[in-house]
Amino acid sequence: MMKDEVELFINYPAKIAAELINDEIDLGLVPVAATLQLKECHIVSDYCIGATGDVASVCLFSDVPLQNIKKILLDYQSRTSVELLKILIKQHWKLNVIIETAEEGYISQIKDTTAGLIIWDRALEQRENFAYIYDLPGEWKEFTGMPFVFAAWVSNKELPQAFIDSFNKANQFGLDHLDKVIKANPYAIYDLHKYYKENISYLLDNDKRKGLETFLLKL
Q1: Is the confidence at residue 169, as pLDDT, over 60?
Q2: pTM above 0.90, yes or no
């Protein structure tokens, strides 16, 4: 893929989804729950951000076990993780709790019987700070028997097949060079080899597509 074929914008997942919905960008790696808001939706790559079990970076953190939680604070950065948690609360764990959308800085409020959903690098940073950690895709796998897809490459219009083929090759190139990427980005908090090669699963195969379809039907 030639660099002049794309203009790259970097942001957190919910913001990327909003940009795609508002037609500010043509293609984005977006939380899959946001696809329901698109007037036109095309999954354009064979790759995704998924998990076949525990992902380590999308978790409910708590000082107390599930049955003692009274309130859950929701991370504001990803709609898909929030919707997944709501499904687990209602259909899998069957909890009767207060659910609140949190704002920046909410992690300090997670204590006593107030739990909180935390995602991505902030979740990895909190793994040593709480007695109970409920890994959402691991819980989803227990609930449905299926892997989970957090984000997919989605366009809001049809893209040329030649571009999609080239884009797939670019994704594969990146995955083929994960060791180089990990080495260039040291991270003492969590083993990135484990994270990028075991916790995250990238191929959007038939099992993940079934898991994705099941999730969207439950929304």
Answers
A1: yes
A2: yes
Q: Please tell me the CATH code under which domain 58-144 is placed.
A: 3.40.190.10
Handedness of CA 9, 12, 14, 15 (dihedral sign): negative
Structure token digits, residue 92: 């899998």
Q: What's the burial of 53, exposed, middle or buried (CB within 10 Å: 0-12/13-18/19+)?
A: middle
The encoded tokens of residue 99 equal 């659910």
Instruction: Please state, as a whole number, how many other Cβ atoms lie within 10 Å of the Cβ of residue 16.
Output: 22
Contact 134, 118 (CB under 8 A): no
Per-residue pLDDT for 14 more than 60?
yes
Distance of CA 219 to the CA centre of its chain: 16
Q: Which fold has domain 9-53+149-218?
A: D-Maltodextrin-Binding Protein; domain 2 (3.40.190)
Share of the chain above pLDDT 70, in %: 99
pLDDT at 117: 98
